[in-house]
Specification:
This protein is of the alpha/beta class. The chain has 9 helices and 13 strands. The chain has a 5-stranded parallel beta sheet with strand order 3-2-4-5-6, with helices on both faces. A 4-stranded antiparallel beta sheet has the order 8-9-10-11. β2, α1 (about 25-40) and β3 (about 45) form a beta-alpha-beta unit. α7 (about 170-185) packs across α9 (about 205-220). The radius of gyration is 19 Å and the shape is elongated. The two termini are about 35 Å apart.
């Protein structure tokens, strides 16, 4: 899994989140991609078949598509042809287990915009998507790359955090943990997910370090205020704006 991205958030021109459709018949790969792309601040839909991909694209109009070449019903190029009827300009990044020049050329000739070969790194997929979407009108997030949840504001570039207008001093690790929570507001994040994103190692009996840093954050972010960081027993933690 990748380390947290420090690149500026990309958004639609109106500032709303970009939407990405991930199409792969391997559910674990689709879920890994969904998690990585959500961490970029994007909305992500997944589909395990070509038919579901076409239906999802019709309903949600994605800003980019990550498309596996080998699907159980249609192949990737058939899905691409159907997508292009609905959305002729949507950028498509092919995933392929085939590494021959002929296969890559065939995918690009069919209208794909780029490709990565399996096994791939999540960082590479994110970087390729960022490049594709920048070329088709996505913009860097406005307001100096601010994350805002309720009265909690994080300036990612300046590494500054304020709640209710008051500055909050955080260590580098506390900042990364809060960044992950703020990029996923109202979403329950497990200890394993937090370990993987913030500390960049697999879950292996280190849950105590997550509990410890959550307690540090609470003392700084929630001290003397209505709490925003909540424990969901047996599930993980969630950051929610005060109602």
């Amino acid at each position: 899994m990748p380390t947290p991205s420090h690149a500026p958030l990309l958004t639609r021109a109106d500032g709303s989140p970009l939407r990405v459709l991930v199409v792969d018949d391997e559910a674990n790969i689709a879920e890994l991609l969904r998690m990585a792309l959500r961490y970029e601040g994007w909305d992500v839909d997944t589909a395990l078949t070509g038919a579901k991909a076409v239906a999802s694209a019709r309903a949600n109009r994605p800003d980019a598509v990550v498309l596996d070449m080998m699907l159980p019903d249609f192949n990737g190029m058939e899905v691409l042809a159907k997508l292009r009827i609905q959305h002729p300009d949507v950028p498509v990044l092919f995933l392929t287990a085939k590494d021959s020049v002929e296969d890559r050329i065939a995918g690009l000739t069919a209208g794909g915009d780029d490709y990565v070969t399996k096994p791939f790194s999540l960082e590479e997929v994110v970087a390729r998507l960022r490049g594709l979407m920048r070329r088709t009108g996505a913009s860097d997030a406005a307001l100096e790359n601010l994350l805002t949840v309720g009265d909690l504001v994080m300036d990612e570039d300046a590494h500054e955090v304020r709640r209710g207008g008051e500055d909050i001093a955080l260590t580098a690790t506390e900042f990364e943990l809060l960044r992950y929570l703020m990029r996923n507001p109202k979403r329950v994040l497990s200890k394993a997910q937090i370990l993987d994103r913030v500390w960049n190692y697999d879950f292996g009996g280190q849950a105590n370090v997550v509990e410890l840093y959550i307690s540090y954050l609470r003392k700084k972010v929630d001290a003397g205020r209505e709490p925003m960081i909540h424990t969901m027993r047996g599930a993980g933690y969630v950051l929610k704006p005060v109602e």
